[in-house]
Q: What sequence folds into this?
């Protein structure tokens, strides 16, 4: 990888282009950034008029939202300390709110307090409201949902915890979870928390080798899976994939298999029947007393280089941050049914399917199906049947659904909805308006929420805010309380003009931030704190309008976002480079009207190859599917005689991105290329490929 070299792309090149090419409609960016005046503002339902009584009752001098925001950023100890005292249940109270050292990128929140995450998410609610529904499991077939109360969830958590202990899992041990969105998955996450183990949920769409590399990196000795699951009517063979993965991981001692399909389990080497083992557990061990900074979970996410990184989230700060953002951004009220349709394999599932809602004692929906199963009305039929009050999903699904027309929405009663959330990628104005006007009947507040696996919870969102503050379409707009976003230019200077565009950074620290990368603190420092010293660097570019509203323009690094899934282009290149016939590759993202971005691979073959270009292309696609996942498979694969490189040998990725986008009219200065003729070769092949 080093030998190939990577050009340092000034961030401004990642900002949306002023125009789009007319070459190919499929490649056309589905949204260009509109002149600001064309984006509308809406004054929607007033929410959060008194957002935090825990603060305002203690600090009565705060009488407006503006004052509250200023207080939260100017007095973080007082702000987060008051919330930490009141929103978390402590075994031993904390005396220090936060300590941080930017020079070593170390941060701690409530480190000398002790608590247990499962007690906070389940036991305390089970004590006061045992019969309140904690989970509504929306299975693949509509109308087959199951409700699980807090009392039932507590019992499940205790039993799984008992089984894990019988398998020798102790405090600090890592447990891999490869399960579909289901109550047993939630119970397993919380069972780990109950005994102080660290869960590492791996998205159940990842391949065996992706699962294996995550198990090995985490050093897990136990993996929890299911026999198989169904999504959109399609069977996913989880146990089979887990077996293949475990064959690559010598340290795995036990594979706990949950029966999910309904068929009798077939157990093999190292495998135990999870439900049978749970049935033999009587009584429960007391919950482990965890330090505020003890790790709660690892979550692997893609970076611009090398292997996915295992972000480490710790206990108290993460719980507090997800609880407060869930409550304030979505105007959560007791009795609501919160419907976040993310998979638990991603951070959105961790924070807003599991931890945030359960911290608030909410009823949370576990959506195991697909937006178009059995038809494109599935989301809205579910909203009607479950009386969902807040719906939280990804723009890629909205873009897909709006193509099927409004009838699939309108035939269902959506009067229960109050807030509609969007997450994972930029939402284009057309999808935003459809969400607001068709799904929400212009009644609901639409919150475009920007955040990341690293931030733990929502960072920018139109709410909370002053109750009458307008909502600007397709903009995450405002910082969450306690947050100070800022923009920097390519030289690393902060941009002080209100209207600006640059690298999106955050000043100060917040409780939800991931504390490190498992086993590689240097990578953590280098990625997030070295590029703009003194600030956290998000990796995203953003624009700020004259009123100070933020709009995200996309990644500035070699990370792309395919159907809302984050993918490092280097991961795909690494897989393709393993092929015997491949000499070089470069992978870029290219705009796609539904997926947001899609994978475009440029491949250079060796002089002597073993088969035809068609066969090699097929093999490369199969390799990527096998080693990563289906969403990472290149949609476009162009075999070329060379890659455009500078004389110093760096691949000019900017040029490849432009070509992939179909934006050929002005390729900029290519005179510095070692061999400019490769560009015409690539262009020729590109046009033939279309
Ligand atoms: O590029 C941003 C995009 O998703 C990235 C984070 O991906 P991940 O860690 O997988 O977390 C996704 C769910 C929080 C960001 O760096 N992104 C996320 N939300 C938005 C977004 N881009 C634009 N607008 C958003 N609302």
A:
């Amino acid at each position: 990888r080093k030998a190939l070299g990577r050009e340092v792309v000034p961030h401004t090149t990642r900002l949306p282009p002023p125009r789009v090419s007319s070459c190919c409609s499929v490649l056309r960016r589905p949204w260009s950034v509109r002149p600001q005046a064309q984006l509308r503002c809406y004054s929607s339902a007033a929410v959060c008029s008194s957002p935090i009584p825990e603060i305002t009752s203690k600090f009565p001098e705060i009488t407006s939202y503006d004052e509250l925001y200023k207080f939260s950023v100017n007095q973080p100890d007082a702000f987060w300390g008051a919330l930490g005292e009141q929103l978390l249940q402590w075994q031993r109270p904390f005396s220090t709110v936060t300590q941080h050292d930017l020079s070593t990128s170390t941060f701690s929140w409530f480190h000398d307090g002790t608590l247990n995450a499962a007690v906070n998410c389940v036991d305390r609610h089970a004590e006061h409201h045992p019969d309140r529904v904690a989970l509504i499991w929306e299975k693949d077939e509509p109308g087959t949902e199951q409700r699980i109360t807090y009392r039932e969830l507590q019992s499940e958590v205790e039993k799984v915890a008992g089984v894990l202990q019988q398998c020798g899992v102790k405090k600090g041990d890592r447990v891999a979870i490869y399960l579909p969105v289901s109550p047993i998955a939630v119970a397993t996450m919380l069972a780990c928390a109950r005994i102080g183990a660290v869960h590492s949920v791996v998205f159940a769409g990842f391949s065996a080798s992706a699962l294996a590399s995550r198990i090995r990196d985490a050093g897990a000795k136990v993996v929890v899976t299911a026999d198989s699951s169904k999504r959109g009517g399609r069977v996913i063979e989880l146990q089979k994939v887990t077996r293949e993965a475990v064959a690559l991981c010598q340290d795995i001692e036990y594979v706990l298999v949950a029966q999910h399909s309904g068929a009798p389990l077939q157990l093999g080497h190292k495998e135990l029947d999870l439900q049978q083992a749970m049935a033999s557990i009587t009584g429960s061990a007391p919950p482990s007393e965890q330090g505020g900074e003890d790790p709660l979970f690892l979550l692997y996410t893609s970076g611009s280089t090398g292997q996915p990184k295992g972000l480490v989230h710790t206990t108290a700060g993460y719980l507090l941050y997800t609880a407060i953002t869930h409550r304030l951004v979505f105007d959560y009220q007791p009795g609501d049914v919160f419907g976040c349709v993310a998979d638990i394999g991603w951070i959105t599932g961790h924070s807003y399917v599991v931890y945030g809602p359960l911290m608030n004692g909410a009823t949370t929906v576990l959506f195991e199906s697909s937006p178009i199963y059995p038809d494109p009305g599935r989301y809205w039929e579910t909203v009607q049947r479950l009386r969902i009050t807040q719906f939280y999903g990804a723009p890629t699904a909205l873009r897909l659904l709006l193509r099927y027309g409004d009838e699939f929405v309108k035939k269902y009663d959506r009067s229960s909805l109050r807030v509609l959330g969007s997450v994972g990628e930029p939402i284009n104005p057309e999808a935003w308006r459809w969400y607001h006007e068709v799904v929400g009947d212009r009644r609901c507040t639409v919150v475009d929420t920007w955040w990341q696996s690293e931030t733990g919870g929502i960072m920018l969102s139109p709410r909370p805010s002053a109750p009458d503050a307008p909502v600007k379409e397709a903009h995450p707009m405002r910082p969450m309380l306690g947050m100070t976003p800022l923009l920097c230019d390519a030289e690393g200077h902060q941009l002080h003009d209100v209207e600006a565009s640059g690298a999106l950074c955050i000043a100060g620290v917040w409780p939800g931030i991931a504390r490190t990368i498992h086993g590689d603190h240097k990578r953590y420092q280098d990625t997030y704190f070295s590029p703009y010293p003194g600030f956290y660097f998000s990796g995203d570019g953003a624009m700020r309008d004259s009123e100070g509203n933020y709009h995200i323009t996309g990644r500035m690094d070699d990370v792309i976002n395919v159907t809302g899934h984050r993918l490092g282009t280097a991961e795909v290149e690494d897989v393709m480079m393993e092929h015997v016939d491949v000499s070089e590759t470069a992978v870029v993202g290219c705009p796609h009207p539904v997926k947001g971005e899609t994978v475009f691979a440029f491949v250079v073959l060796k002089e002597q190859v073993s088969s035809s270009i068609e066969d090699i292309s097929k093999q490369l696609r199969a390799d990527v599917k096998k080693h990563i996942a289906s969403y990472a498979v290149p949609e476009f694969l162009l075999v070329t005689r060379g890659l455009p490189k500078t004389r110093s040998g760096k691949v000019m990725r900017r040029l490849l991105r432009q070509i992939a986008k179909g934006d050929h009219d002005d390729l900029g200065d290519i005179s510095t290329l070692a061999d400019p003729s490769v560009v015409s070769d690539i262009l020729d092949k590109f046009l033939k490929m279309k």
Remarks:
- The longest strand covers residues 582-592.
- Confidence is low (pLDDT under 50) at residues 1-37, 45-49.
